[in-house]
Design a protein that fits this description.
- 42% of the residues lie in helices and 16% in strands.
- By secondary structure, it is α/β, with parallel strands linked by helices.
- β6 and β7 form a beta hairpin.
- The relative contact order is 0.12.
- The protein binds guanosine-5'-triphosphate and magnesium ion (MG).
C-alpha cells in the first residue's frame, strides 16, 4: 500500500493549524510504513525541510529513499548531483540512496518503486551468521580496531538477533574500547556490504562474560581462557539480555540528534 502525505511547509504558505495536522498525518504515515520515499524538488535540491522529513521517517524505523523529482525541468550536472548525494550521506546517518526521477515523464519511476520494495525486503531479511562473520573479518582487515590505553578492541563474533529493523550483536572483549568513530565505521561498512543504504540498523556491542566454569579456575588461568575466546554457538547473547545492554558510550554533545550529522563520511576511506 502506498500512502501519499501532504507536504510539510516551513514557511507560512499554510496556516499553523494545517501545518500541525499535516505533520501529525505524516507521523501517522511513517508509524505505519516500512519504507518512506522522500520526494524533493530537484530545483531546490534536498532542503533542510526535506532532511526534517527524512529524520521523522527514520526515527519511526522506516527505510528511506530520497528522490529528486522534476528532473525533466531541473536536472543538475553530474558534479552537482554527486555533491547533493555527498551532502545527504553526511547529514543522515542512515545514508539513504538519492535517485532522480520525473513524475511528469515517468522517468525512473519504476526504478523508485523497485528500490522501495527492495528496501522493504532488506528491512525484514536475515543475513546468515557465516556471511556476517566473513564481513567482520573484512572490517578488521580494512581498519584495525582502536586501542584504548594500550588495550586493543577485539571483535569476536557477529550474529543477527532481530529484524524489522535488522539488529546485530557483536561480541567484544571490552565495551569500553568501542569508540564512536569505529562503531560508525562498522555500521557504514555493514550498510555498504549488505545494501542497508537508508535502512535503520542497530548494532549492539556486547562484552563477553566469563562462563561459570571459568570463574572457578585459578585467576591466571581464568584470564587466559577469557582472552583466548573460543567461538561457540552458546556464545551468542540471548535477545532478552541485549535489551539491557546500552549502546556504545554516548556523548551528549554529539548524540543529541541521533540520526542527523552523526555519521562521518571521512570514515569511509
Ligand atoms: N516539470 C515537472 N513538474 C512536476 C513534476 N511532478 C510534479 N510536478 C508539478 O509540481 C506541482 C506540484 O505537484 P504535486 O504533485 O501537487 O506536489 P505535492 O508535493 O504532492 O504537493 P502537496 O501535496 O500540496 O504537498 C504540480 O504543478 C505538478 O504538475 C515533474 O516531475 N516534473
Ligand atoms: Mg500531494
Amino acid at each position: 500500500m502506498i500512502v501519499d502525505t501532504a507536504g510539510m511547509r516551513r514557511q507560512s504558505k499554510v496556516s499553523e493549524s494545517v501545518e500541525y495536522y499535516t505533520t501529525l498525518r505524516s507521523q501517522r504515515a511513517v508509524d505505519r510504513a516500512d519504507v518512506a520515499i522522500v520526494v524533493c524538488d530537484a530545483a531546490d535540491g534536498v532542503t533542510a525541510q526535506d532532511f526534517r522529513i527524512a529524520d521523522l521517517a527514520m526515527r519511526a524505523g522506516c527505510s528511506t529513499l530520497i528522490v529528486l523529482n522534476k528532473w525533466d525541468e531541473h536536472n543538475m550536472t553530474d558534479d552537482d548531483l554527486a555533491h547533493e548525494r555527498g551532502h545527504v550521506q553526511q547529514k543522515l546517518r542512515l545514508r539513504p540512496r538519492v535517485l532522480t526521477a520525473s513524475a511528469k515523464t515517468g522517468r525512473n519511476i519504476n526504478r523508485v518503486i523497485e528500490e522501495a520494495i527492495a528496501l522493504g525486503d532488506r528491512r525484514k531479511g536475515r543475513i546468515p551468521t557465516s556471511q556476517l562473520n566473513r564481513f567482520l573479518a573484512e572490517v578488521v582487515e580494512a581498519k584495525q580496531p582502536p586501542a584504548v590505553r594500550g588495550n586493543r578492541l577485539k571483535m569476536l563474533y557477529i550474529t543477527q538477533v532481530g529484524e524489522e529493523p535488522p539488529r546485530f550483536a557483536i561480541s567484544v572483549n571490552d565495551r569500553a574500547r568501542v569508540v564512536r568513530s569505529y562503531a560508525y565505521f562498522v555500521e557504514n561498512r555493514l550498510r555498504a556490504r549488505f545494501g542497508f543504504d537508508g535502512v535503520p540498523v542497530i548494532i549492539d556491542f556486547n562484552e563477553r562474560r566469563a562462563r561459570r566454569s571459568e570463574v572457578s579456575m585459578t585467576p591466571g588461568r581464568q584470564r587466559r581462557v577469557i582472552e583466548e575466546e573460543v567461538l561457540e554457538d552458546d556464545d551468542v547473547v540471548p535477545d532478552e539480555e541485549l535489551q539491557e545492554v546500552e549502546e556504545f558510550p554516548i556523548d551528549p554533545a554529539i548524540d543529541h540528534l541521533p540520526w542527523i550529522d552523526a555519521g562521518d563520511p571521512s570514515l569511509d576511506d
